UniProtKB/TrEMBL annotation:
<dbReference type="Pfam" id="PF00232">
    <property type="entry name" value="Glyco_hydro_1"/>
</dbReference>
<dbReference type="InterPro" id="IPR033132">
    <property type="entry name" value="GH_1_N_CS"/>
</dbReference>
<comment type="similarity">
    <text>Belongs to the glycosyl hydrolase 1 family.</text>
</comment>
<keyword id="KW-0326">Glycosidase</keyword>
<dbReference type="InterPro" id="IPR017853">
    <property type="entry name" value="GH"/>
</dbReference>
<protein>
    <submittedName>
        <fullName>6-phospho-beta-glucosidase</fullName>
    </submittedName>
</protein>
<dbReference type="InterPro" id="IPR001360">
    <property type="entry name" value="Glyco_hydro_1"/>
</dbReference>
<keyword id="KW-0378">Hydrolase</keyword>
Length: 494
């Protein structure tokens, strides 16, 4: 570090982020319908080889769904119990407030508001989220709401083939309008689809696509058609929010996968460039209001029909987002030829291992400088305000006999990444609105459904097999992050 004084903007939104399907539980309470998350089975992967099998950890078949629906088991299907946030949300938000949160990003579960996705509004579900918003505002915490975060009502997957069916656009509009009509007078920040690009990596979890129902050679077209329908739906609800509450801000949310060429061979550099186009493509549509040229060429060359209409083009062009938010956990390398190279896992991705970076227990490579690079890349590309809405370290924590967790490794991770953000703001001119860490409280890991992969500043007494008291305990990182927020980031440089 230089002697430069690194500062964060006044009013910077410090906080944390969660998703309904990873914390709420109460999968069959309060009028909630079954979601795609409720049939995701715990597979307890052993070792990096199993962890690296992303498809096995996220794919699902009709037979697996049928098996799940016959069972009320919450151990085999752990997202059904979550961390009991549905009943403990006041306790958890009070802990966030004790840390000094300025913002809390959380998602609304579509199936809690519209149980089957195509039926009537469940007022009890809306009441729950209204209460959550009020609880946040009681402590001066700004709610940031994600409208779709891997929580598609299962009925829309089984009866309509998920987002492959254009009718889901209208179903999504109805659901979002109900949420916005109830909460919009108190919520300023909205995100439409979490990690909008992720349907290419885990089609069922993101888009309700049951791959085994489709011919292998047609599935790529199905993926892009489902993506297109999501993008049109996003633009339509962005229009609704802007018209209903003009002061509200709507953002897109993308997975910021950051890749380096494994060598300086032009072939490796080209491989990274082509991969990054895929990473940026769908945020590009939401920011610029049109498909990038390379995707239009791809559709034409491969004869893909995504169902684009002239009305779609107009809706996309006229209803772009106000800011760009993203998740960032790690970086990876790419090579044109990966033969003989060591691979390692990331955020539902696999990449070539970078020999210059340390790795977490789950193989994710820790790279704070990569966050600075990512911020600069995104701001240079989009020239819109940015928000880091997911960043964190999954690790195996040990709860001591006196109910403490000494997680210096987590503090070190956050310290490096917060310093990188400050450098991006002060040295690179990036306009950054806020930072919500992933999993401020321990929750179920999305891909592996493990509790042992812990992210939080708050320990939840629960193991991978649903055993525990569900009691909450503060980790050492709790007080550390509290001071970071109190000093608006200055203490991260101590």
């Amino acid at each position: 570090m230089t002697d430069t004084k690194y500062t964060f903007p006044k009013g910077f939104l410090w906080g944390g982020a969660t998703a309904a399907n990873q914390i709420e539980g109460a999968w069959n309470e309060g009028g909630k319908g079954v979601s795609v998350a409720d049939v995701q089975k715990f597979r307890n992967p052993q070792g990096l080889k199993e962890l690296n099998n992303i498809k096995k950890n996220t794919d699902i078949t009709d037979e697996m769904i049928e098996e799940a629906l016959k069972s009320d088991d919450e151990t085999l299907y752990p997202k059904r119990h979550g961390i009991h946030y549905y009943e403990k949300y006041k306790e958890d938000i009070a802990l966030f407030a004790e840390m000094g949160f300025k913002a809390y990003r959380f998602s609304v579960a579509w199936s809690r508001v519209v149980p089957n996705g195509d039926d009537d509004i469940n007022e009890e579900g809306l009441d729950f989220y209204s209460n959550v918003v009020d609880e946040c505002l009681k402590y001066g915490i700004e709610p940031i709401i994600t409208l779709s975060h891997y929580e598609l009502p299962l009925h829309l997957a089984t009866a309509y083939n998920g987002w492959n069916d254009r009718r889901l656009i209208g179903f999504f509009e109805k659901y979002v309008q109900a949420v916005v009509d109830r909460l919009g007078d108190r919520v300023k920040y909205w995100l439409t689809f979490n990690e909008v690009d992720s349907i290419l990596r885990h089609p069922f979890m993101t888009g309700g696509l049951i791959e085994s129902r489709f011919e292998k050679d047609e599935f790529q077209e199905v993926l892009y058609r489902a993506m297109h329908n999501q993008l049109v739906a996003s633009a339509k609800v962005t229009k609704y929010i802007h018209q209903k509450y003009p002061q509200s801000k709507v953002g897109c949310m993308t997975t910021k996968l950051t890749y380096y060429p494994y060598t300086c061979k032009p072939e490796d550099v080209l491989a990274v460039q082509q991969k990054m186009r895929q990473v940026y493509a769908f945020a590009d549509v939401q920011v610029f209001g049109e498909y990038p040229a390379y995707l239009r060429v791809k559709f034409q060359k491969e004869g893909m029909d995504v169902g684009m209409t002239e009305e779609d083009k107009q809706v996309l062009k006229e209803n772009t987002v106000d800011f760009v938010s993203f998740s960032y956990y790690q970086s990876s390398c790419m090579a044109a030829n990966e033969a003989g190279l060591e691979l390692t896992s990331g955020n539902t991705t696999i990449g070539v291992k970078n020999p210059y970076l340390p790795s977490s227990e789950w193989g994710w490579q820790i790279d704070p400088i990569g966050l600075r690079i990512s911020l600069s890349d995104l701001y240079d590309r989009y020239r819109k305000p940015l928000m880091v809405v997911e960043n964190g370290l999954g690790a195996k924590d040990i709860l001591t006999d006196d109910k403490k967790v000494h997680d210096d490794y987590r503090i070190a991770y956050f310290k490096g990444h917060i310093q990188a953000m400050a450098q991006a703001i002060n040295d690179d001119g990036v306009e950054l609105m806020g930072y919500t860490t992933w999993g401020p409280i321990d929750l179920l890991s999305n891909s592996t459904l493990q509790m042992s992969k812990r992210y939080g500043f708050i320990y939840v007494d629960l193991d991978d097999f649903g055993q525990g008291t569900y009691n909450r305990y503060k980790k050492d990182s709790f007080d550390w992050y509290k001071k970071v927020i109190q000093t608006n980031g200055e203490s991260a440089f101590e």
